[in-house]
Amino acid sequence: MNLASNLERWAAQRPSHPVVVFEGRRVSYAELDAAASRLAHALRAHGVVAGDRVALFLPNIPEYLVAWYAAQKLGAITVSINAIFRTAEVEYLLVDSGSKVVFTVGELAQFVPRERCPALGHLVVCEGEAPAGAATLAQWSEGRDTQLTGVDCAADAPASLLYSSGTTGFPKGVTLTQSNIATNIATAAACSGYRSDDRLAAFLPLFHVYGQNYIMNAAVLAGATLVLFRRFVPDQVLEAIGRERVTMFFGVPTIFIGLLSMDLSKYDLSSIRYEMSAAATMPEEISRRWTERFGRRVYEGYGLTECSPFACYNDLVEHRFGSVGRAVEGFELAIFDEADREVPRGQWGEIVIRGPGVMKGYWNRPQDTAQALRGGWLHSGDIGRMDDDGYVFIVDRVKDMINVSGFKVWPAEVEQYLYKLPQVQEVAVYGAPHPEKGEQVVVAVVPKPGQSITGGTVIDYCRANIAAYKVPARV
Q1: What is the pTM of this model?
Q2: What percentage of the chain has pLDDT greater than the value 70?
Q3: Which CATH superfamily is domain 183-397 in?
Q4: pLDDT of amino acid 281
Q5: By the 8 A CB rule, do 461 and 453 touch?
Q6: DSSP letter at 318?
Q7: Are 19 and 220 in contact (CB under 8 A)?
Q8: List of E strands, 25-145
Q9: Top-tier CATH class for 401-470
Q10: What is the C-alpha to C-alpha distance for residues 249 and 245, in angstroms, rounded to an integer?
Q11: In the CATH hierarchy, which top-level class contains the domain 27-153?
């Protein structure tokens, strides 16, 4: 198997159909496959073989797809690097992964410390000027053959490294296999109902597992079109939705919160048929407001980089506000206590996951892998509960818990209540040291435009609605 086969199939069946629309450019499936093939030939000529690591230190540009699929055609392992990282962070990922090639853009090339990355042989610039000693993508690709069928890879062969900090320490390379990604994107496309005539707004970063697998790779599997943006700039994205007739909108909770505070009447959003939120917990109140305003629910998904990422969906049959849904096909979720025993339904504990998307392990970290996958379950580090019908409700991250005199306070729970205040646009609850209690609850509030709210109002509201130990000490 080979993940590039999805691109190759659509290049043969619908060669002129656009796969990417970006800043006035339209790239067809045939053009993308030809560009990826040329680059794959170049990679092979420069010594890259199956199993080698190829790093992508790139923003959201079409060349991201070219480099990703070129590496996949050879059975190489793509290494995704956050485009806002700087020298020390980039060095750590390149050295840890042993990447042989890094693709980047001119403005980011300065943050690649080639002299301190022993395995790194080549720096290739995909946009902008190349520094001394580097090549451009055009130079590498020029004159190469436009045909290269992906090599046959084993189902458990590593395909992608996406770095996750998890709950502790330096980032760890989450090793996702061919099968992990192939099965997960198929489930994603089925749950979200992707069609080949769909146009997906793709402004979430492609270096992140949500953007890379749930959006980019699942769209290519379905033969759909990515309307690609470098980042989320509201006016640019909203205007493009009407111009390009975007049908599917993927965001994170902060984006939906921001849009709810805007006057959207001047934008043509009539083409959108589907919205989804993931990567962070959607406050129940925000989800309800969106549905009341637009008449459509925001679908929600849950998972981790370590499970490719999709494990839970709300929902193909019955949507429940406040939940991230039920396990998707092939996955199981359970709630464990601190001794790794399953707790009764309705009680909170750590969410654990098993299924076809769960990672092969952490790159070169057998002890961390054994700890995360102990007992045959992926331990998420997220605290949640499950109702009698299997719907999962996120409480918070283990590491985010605030310990107030021995009482556990979960920030997300307090935030859910605060979002009910009509003046509140955004809120963040966190812990601060306290000499006697250990920690105390602190709240930061952003009021809606044109409104104001005092700290006293927030504290009084909390005193009337939640237990005393959860009430913020200051705002």
Answers
A1: 0.88
A2: 99
A3: ANL, N-terminal domain (3.40.50.12780)
A4: 78
A5: no
A6: -
A7: yes
A8: 25-28, 53-56, 77-80, 101-104, 122-125, 135-136
A9: alpha beta
A10: 11
A11: alpha beta
